[in-house]
Amino acid sequence: MEFASETEVADAGKHVRSLSAALNQVLFGQEELIDLVLTGVLARGHILLEGLPGLGKTELVKGLSKTLRLDTKRIQFTPDLLPGDITGNPVLQEVNGNRSFVFQPGPLFTNIALADEINRASPKTQSALLEAMQERRVTVLGESHELPKPFFVLATQNPIELEGTYPLPEAQLDRFLFKLEVTRNDVDTLERIVNHRELGTEPEIESIMDAATLDATLALVRRIFLPEVVGNYIARIVDATHPGQSSAARAIRYGASPRAALSLASAAKARALMNERTHASFEDVKFVAPSVLRHRIVLEYHAKVEGLTNNDVVRSILEEVPAQAGATPKTMKTAPSA
Fold first, then answer.
1. Residues of the chain with CATH 1.10.8.80
2. Pairwise CA distance, residues 208 & 220, whole Å
3. Domain 1-223 belongs to what topology?
4. How far is it, in rounded angstroms, from Cα 176 to Cα 234?
5. pTM over 0.85, yes/no
6. CA-to-CA distance for 62 and 72, rounded, in angstroms?
7. CB 223 within 8 Å of CB 266
8. Which fold does the domain 224-329 belong to in CATH?
9. CA-CA distance, 257 to 135, in Å (whole number)?
10. What is the DSSP string of 46-64?
11. For residue 194, pLDDT beyond 90
């Protein structure tokens, strides 16, 4: 495979900067969140946005669809939503006197599926997304139907502590490249929102990329060079999430899967392109690691009692695992001699 050239990466970087600037006019004061969303899209991944109602999660996804000029359908997840309401159903039709079932595609057949408040639907309905998110196709009554390309699921959810929510199954969480936390705004940002927004109106935003440009950019991300030392760093981070493999893993019951390692590699290459570099670095991995790993580890009960969070444990793992193989982990360094 031919690796990306500096000229190609520089040209793509200009488009990505334009995307970022446009989205920052949709959601004020969330620059890092927007960078991570764009990183996830460039890595061809699905993204889970978690935060309290009213913080702009849905507006961010709608703004992204406008800037990328992609077909987008919104699915409002509710407790009474059925799997067929998402994937589509076979409908009995009569043609020339003959009756047969004809598949009618559901709202999942789109480029960006906005799964709004995904954790308000039942586990049965949530599981209808499993095949679509992994294999980009839907199977109904034994017949498979390919989804449009590109295909992304951008889901929003409220914190699980709120009433009327269902935890997402681990198999589905693992299919999300990123889990991003949408935090509340500070006073300056709130003042900016009050002065530049009206309740019930959407901000105007222009298209930045067409389908051809997006396809070329996604293909270019795959050609970003991933040095072997960076690949080794990714492998050691994921291995350190498993019990017995690091000090921080004492708080973990189940660690991250091989899909997490692949996600780290893809996201690191996407961030390298966003920074107009032809190769991924250790810093790229460190930047995306919390978003890739926080939803892929399951903590022990005693860790929760002690008040530890997934973010705390991932942070400890990144501090413990050295970038260079063979270097002494921070938690194992001895005190300097007198």
1. 224-329
2. 17
3. Rossmann fold (3.40.50)
4. 18
5. yes
6. 8
7. no
8. Helicase, Ruva Protein; domain 3 (1.10.8)
9. 17
10. EEEEE--TTSSHHHHHHHH
11. no
Q: Is the peptide bond before 79 cis (omega within 30 degrees of 0)?
A: no
- φ, ψ of residue 149 in degrees (nearest 5): -120, 135
Query: How far, rounded to the nearest angstrom, does the alpha carbon of residue 76 sit from its chain's CA centroid?
Result: 19
Distance CA 282, CA 161 (A): 35
For CATH 3.40.50.300, list the domain ranges present in the chain: 1-223
Q: What's the farthest any 2 CA atoms get from each other in the chain? A: 95
Of 90 and 115, the one with more pLDDT: 115
Could you give the C-alpha distances from 216 to 8, 209, 238, in angstroms and in order?
Answer: 10, 11, 30
Residue with tokens 């949530």: 126
Nearest to 104 by CA among 90, 115, 93, 114: 90
pLDDT digits (tens, 9 = 90+) for 117-170: 998 888 888 888 999 999 999 988 888 999 999 999 999 988 766 667 788 888
Per-residue pLDDT reduced to its tens digit, 225-252: 999 999 999 999 999 999 988 898 899 9
Residue count (the chain) = 338
The tokens describing 271, both together, are 């961030």
Closest CA to 48 of 126, 131, 124: 126
Alpha-carbon span 323 to 319, nearest angstrom = 10
Comparing CA positions, the residue from 64, 82, 45, 4 lying closest to residue 275 is 4
CA distances from 24 to 19, 31, 298, 309, 317 (A): 9, 7, 33, 29, 31
Token look-up 């960006």 returns: 112
Question: From CA 148, how far away is CA 137, in angstroms rounded?
Answer: 9
DSSP per residue, 1-60: -PPPPHHHHHHHHHHHHHHHHHHTTTSTT-HHHHHHHHHHHHTT-EEEEE--TTSSHHHH
